[in-house]
Design brief:
13 strands, alpha/beta, two-stranded antiparallel ribbon, globular, 34% helix, 11 helices
Amino acid sequence: MSTQDNKAGFLAIELDGAGWDGGAFGSLAGAVLAVEAAGFHVATFKDAPEPGRTNALQRAAYAGPVTRTIALAPEVDTVYTEPFHIATQLASLDYVSGGRAGWIVTAAESPAAAAAVGRSAVRGNALVHEAAASIEVGRRLWDSWEDDAVIRDVATGRYIDVDKLHYVDFETPADFAGTPYSVKGPSIIPRPLQGQLPVLASASLVGGGVPVESVDAVLVTAPTSELLVAGVRDARERLGAVAVVAELGVVLDSRGEPAAARAVPETGRAQFAGTAAELTGYLHGLLLEADGVRLHPGDLARELDELSRLVLPELRHRGSLRAPVQDGTFRGLLGLERPANRYSTSTTASAAAGK
């Protein structure tokens, strides 16, 4: 369900921008609390196979208990990470965050990531196949425990009702381009608080073969800010009701230094450089088209100062942003209901009875 039905959109911010040490948990706590206080709706966590670096899931898990309103969405690779472990770790993140977890699916060609786990690099169609399979495994495992599987029956000494745990019996399809595998299940973690975590993936992955019905939001990238609006419109027309999130790099005039004087690495994504007022106007227009925008600050500390003082308050004044909801869920932010469990025996019985 598109949040455009609610008109106001949401803002996400990447916490791994230049100028901030993403490996220090003290810095992480300060950063995530600062962006939550500023009114951002989602914090995202980039991943990279670098020595001594805590991974995105670990950083998101650390941020979970110290925050109350902001959703937490780590990037998790689907090519070199076991799908079973992805599903269980993300379910754990949903518990420690109180239902505010999401998953940004990545499947990039990365020799460094392959070398880090002692595998040959995966390329071409195999990347999309790995992503699609990993998403399907995750969704099945999240449903492998029914909501009332944990009974804690002291009298009988039973903790779970084994009839409400289910095998997922996943096997990669015959045309799978990677190394075939199977997952039996069930999960080792009860069903997540949200039932199913929101799954976000790039528009290129979804357009390249990941089924659109398997994701809840698409991330749209364009080479320039002018083309970004067109890219959002195109994604909405092609992909239907899933939420559309625009990706935007941001460098702002700050502390007497113009944005143009601060060089940023080429990323291939649209880059906005200018004043806070100019960015406010641009985001106001962009949020008329997109459900949300994910900002990638050139320097987190400097950009956040301008964003929190000048940009977000004005966007709220214009009615462009949804109000953060304390103790809300990421699914709620995206306008998604808590889904029924595909394996639920009670759901099956009710359907058979015509209820």
